[in-house]
Every structure is written in C-alpha cells, then in structure tokens.
Amino acid sequence: MQIDVDPQEDPQSAPDVNYVVENPTLDLEQYAASYSGLMRIERLQFIADHCPPLRVEALKMALSFVQRTFNVDMYEEIHRKLSEATRGRRLAELAARKYKQAAKCFLLASFDHCDFPELLSPSNVAVYGGLCALATFDRQELQRNVISSSSFKLFLELEPQVRDIIFKFYESKYASCLKMLDEMKDNLLLDMYLAPHVRTLYTQIRNRALIQYFSPYVSADMRKMATAFNTTVAALEDELTQLIL
C-alpha cells in the first residue's frame, strides 16, 4: 500500500540551510555589481551567513550599500554582524601570530559597537591592538594608524599605560617605554588570549626599538645606547649581535 507523504513533512525534501562554504572562487565585487537595491544587500548577507572566508568582505560591502538607504534597522543589523565577524578575525590573526594583520584588525574596531563581554572588552582591544602595532608598525604607520587615529584613541583612553607606552616609543624614549612594558608584563601573562604571545611581542618591540635607535646614525655611542635601553654595554653588544645574525 502506497502512502502519500506531504513534501512539507518529508525531512529529506526540506531545504538544506545549515551549510558552510570554505573554498569559494567567487569574485564578490563582480557578483554584487550584477544586482542593485535590496537584492544586492540581501545576497551579500546570504554569502556572509554561509561563507566564513568571505564574511567580513561581504558584510563590509553590504554595509556600504545600505548606508545609501534610509534603512536604519538593516544598517544596525549588518553593523552588528560585521562587528561580531571582525572580533573573531582579530583573535584568529593573533592566535596565528600574524601580528601586523591582528593590529590592523584591532585598529578597525568601532568603539560604539565593541560591547562583547563574552569574548573581548574594549580594554582588550586597546592592549592587543597597541602591542601588536608596536611590534610590527614602523614610525610612519604608528603615527598614521595609531597615534593619529581618532577612533582608536577612544580605546587607548581606557588603558592610559598602553597609550603612554606608545607615545614613549614614538618619541624614542625607549628606557621609559621598556620599563613601563616590564611593569605590566605580569598582568598580561594572566590574559588567556595574549599570554602565549607576550614574550614574542616584547622581543619584537625591543628589536624594533633597537633598529629605530640606530637608523638615524652612521655610528652610535654604545654607552649612550646602553643607557637608553637600561642595560650594560656587554649585554647590548650580545643583543645586537643576535639581532644582526
């Protein structure tokens, strides 16, 4: 005896919505250009929901398009999704030791949409972003992307010690900068996300300081340099030898 089954009640005929695309070859800009209005925004959101590699890019594009409309609710929803996507990306870049990329991601954080206490606090953004920037940015990048950033300034106001360290570093006051870093090191080692990277970040920051100290000079007075870095001439010579090698 044949029993008719309502297609709507047959689980095998139900649409598959819980899937993830990991290896897309889609040109997102070209794809989005094929549509307009609400359809373009909805298609970009759909891609963001199902494709982690394209999620941030798709949401950024959707946000730029929705800004041209008066749909405040949709703007806030997409902005929320983008904030959630980028916070995960920041920690992923940090975990992968891609410190420059991590710095760039943290510096893009929006202070008004950074309330995710289940994962990161605004103070975390200031500390993680500030240290990653110090470890990887040159002077021009530090000035342009950190010191002159009106948005990241709001985060740094929550962590004045990190702010002062950045300014000391930029002003070539390396002894004060490194001393302040040492003073906060123990607290950083209690941070579950940052702790595995503290030693590497500190080494990179110190190495960058040594390089920047040398850069304006054909030769440098080792005694003055040792004083600037709060160390001995012998220890400094060993450190510079390792840096050159």
UniProtKB/TrEMBL annotation:
Cell compartments where the protein resides: Cytoplasm; Nucleus
GO cellular component: COP9 signalosome; cytoplasm
Principal subcellular localization: cytoplasm
Classification via InterPro entries: PCI_dom, Rpn7/CSN1, Rpn7_N
Recorded superkingdom: Eukaryota
Keywords: Cytoplasm, Nucleus, Signalosome
Pfam family of the protein (one): PCI
Keyword Protein transport (UniProt): no
Domain PCI span(s) in chain numbering: 105-245
Matching PANTHER family: 26S PROTESOME SUBUNIT 6 (PTHR14145), COP9 SIGNALOSOME COMPLEX SUBUNIT 1 (PTHR14145:SF2)
Protein's recorded name: COP9 signalosome complex subunit 1
Phylogenetic classification of the source organism: Eukaryota, Metazoa, Chordata, Craniata, Vertebrata
Gene: GPS1
